[in-house]
């Protein structure tokens, strides 16, 4: 695997840490800026909304730029807004930096994915995707707990400074490792051509399935703390351990999927999604048993991010003539799920359905994703039969 692909994973690690680290800093931010916890929580929502809206917009704006230039620009903006965020005493300014940072992160993700695939070559697309997505899983295991620790020791601003500092060597490495032009040497398709390619039904269904899978993942992940403390019976000190266990599983799943999905992508997606649906239901049923909870958290982390990696690879396979915009829509679908899943889980909790309710919501979302996959299979078979009929020679008279 080219060194530049691992550099992209390092940059994604820094940005993934920023995306998720606020979960451990909200009380500190609220107290320092004299706002409510709900207002501090909006900083996370603003980042998610910025990612969803920013992915296609930034990709469309920067699609004609050389990829190294685009990556450095997006990463430079990301570093700058974290410096501003670390210095400001204004909640409004901090909120604005989260939106702008999300826009830059979304643009970086879209370009990083297509760059990694181009550098790795056609036979290692899933492995390249796994390296980039792996940056997020490492952020869950290392970056987010480290950010929480820094916030506890030196205040929430220290976590922002740390994200900015980690991004600097990534920028230097990108400058040295990523080629200045288009890595694949392919001509740049027109914007209308790329957008038309994204309207294909198979691609849209795949993006919907991807959003549902990620929604299921983050629905439960966002509410693991009340589940393990109030249902499983673990003390508060176990929460970081459980979260890290999910991250370890995620990293293992991404790594394994990267090696399997290039050869058998359909099997990885089909089996992974089926196992995810069963696993979330099993976790909801057995959450009162500590051993079962720990085992399933590890397993579900691996299945969720492994399946997600294979789905991202499929998006690029379905839109070979629109790689940059396909990467942006994959990024948007990921974050639609990351924003919608916790919202649905919160509704279930607010309705008084209990602390297992978000896990049942995850199982339901996976059932919907499986239904979408079945519809995709039926559509593909119908298209295949139509094409075969067209190619069949007409009978002689």
Automatic annotation (TrEMBL):
Signal peptide: none annotated. The keyword Cell membrane applies. PROSITE patterns: MFS (PS50850). The chain crosses the membrane at residues 38-59, 71-93, 99-121, 128-146, 158-181, 202-224, 236-256, 268-288, 294-316, 328-353, 359-382. Keywords: Cell membrane, Membrane, Transmembrane, Transmembrane helix. It holds the Pfam family MFS_1. The lineage of its organism: Bacteria, Bacillati, Actinomycetota, Actinomycetes, Kitasatosporales. This is MFS transporter. It is a multi-pass membrane protein. Residues 4-381 form the Major facilitator superfamily (MFS) profile domain. One of its GO terms (molecular function) is transmembrane transporter activity. One of its GO terms (cellular component) is plasma membrane.
